[in-house]
Specification:
Layout (H helix, E strand, L loop, with lengths): L2 E3 L3 H4 L26 H15 L6 E5 L14 E4 L5 H11 L4 E7 H7 L1 H10 L4 E6 L34 H8 L3 E6 L3 H13 L4 E6 L11 H4 L3 E3 L10 H8 L6 E8 L5 H4 L19 H11 L1
Parallel strand pairs: 2-3, 2-4, 4-5, 5-7, 6-7, 8-9
Antiparallel strand pairs: 1-3, 6-9
Helix pairs in contact: 2-7, 4-5, 6-9
Length: 307
């Protein structure tokens, strides 16, 4: 069952951005990730990004699937939904179409998003739905105690591949670029200030924005650790990378080894799905607030049937 998480009433009383503080986005539940998990930094970066942008908690909805990282909506004070495995983008699309005035942020892990959710990933990108997708990529299935994920490197030894994985991993950066995403970035949980900027750009971008985040699993992934990533990650912005150059962005996205780029790889301006949908452009506001066009009795009967 999908779970709706509502903002704390005390926070919703804030009526202006001037009243916001970073604690405005602190959830009612304390995160229960393993000590040292990169997801703590991702959560903090998202809270900081929302604060910097002056977005009020009731203007944002955070939606997730299943997995360690997908518990995040319970740890942040916005509207939120903890949905089904791999279905965050499908639910996020429905939320955006129902109320296109909301900032929709989907979150999850590499297994949730690039594995069982891969089909939704591709079609949400090609539609250029105006939402942000933050993927905490730890290259392992952490919640089920350490099996290979879609982004695990070839040869990686895990519980499911004791002799080493024989499969080639997914590379989400070039995949997103050719799939239709109009904002493609990567961050590293150990570089939180940089990650905040990637998230801010994604949230304000009109169209599908991917922020893939290296978020090390300190419990089950002993290969791709903070110590392994630190000397390898190189910030694209410090190298003068041009995010409007598609081919150079693809080349950077394929780099893996002694140098692994992070930053904004690719950005372009195209109409989003909401821009192209005539019903959302007729001046009558979000569909969620419009009259059903049927009687109250009929409406209640439908709601009762669906619930």
């Amino acid at each position: 069952m999908s779970t709706l998480i509502e903002p704390a009433p005390a926070i919703e009383t804030a009526k202006s951005a001037a009243q916001l503080v970073k604690e405005s986005y602190k959830g009612k539940i304390h995160p229960d990730w393993c000590p040292g998990c990169g997801d703590f930094s991702v959560l903090a970066a998202l809270q900081t990004a929302l604060f910097d942008l002056g977005l009020k908690p009731h203007q944002v909805v955070v939606i997730s699937g299943i997995g360690c990282s997908s518990n995040l909506p319970g740890f942040i004070n916005t509207y939120g939904m903890h949905t089904l495995h791999g279905r965050a983008l499908a639910v996020g699309t429905g939320v955006k179409m129902g109320n296109h005035e909301l900032k929709v942020i989907c979150v999850g892990g590499d297994g949730d998003g690039y594995g069982i959710g891969g089909n939704h990933f591709m079609h949400t990108m090609r539609r250029n739905v105006d939402l942000t997708y933050i993927v905490m990529d730890n290259q392992i299935y952490g919640l089920t105690t350490g099996q290979t994920s879609p982004t695990s490197v070839k040869g990686m030894k895990t519980k499911s591949t004791p002799h080493g994985s024989v499969e080639n991993p997914i590379n989400p950066i070039p995949l997103a670029m050719v799939g239709g995403a109009t904002y493609v970035a990567r961050g590293f949980s150990a570089k939180q200030k940089h990650l905040v900027e990637m998230m801010k750009g994604a949230i304000m971008h009109n169209g599908f924005a991917l922020v893939d985040v290296f978020s090390p699993c300190v419990t089950y992934n002993k290969d791709n650790t903070y110590q392994w990533f630190n000397p390898r990650v190189k910030i694209l912005e410090e190298q003068g990378h041009d995010p409007s150059d598609f081919h150079k962005a693809l080349d950077k996205g394929h780099m893996w080894g002694d140098e692994i780029p992070i930053g904004l790889f690719w950005k372009r301006t195209l109409p989003s799905l909401e821009d192209l949908e005539p019903v959302l452009q007729d001046g009558n506001g979000p569909l969620a607030f419009r009259k059903l066009g049927i009687s109250d009795e009929q409406g209640q009967a439908l709601i009762k049937e669906l619930l």
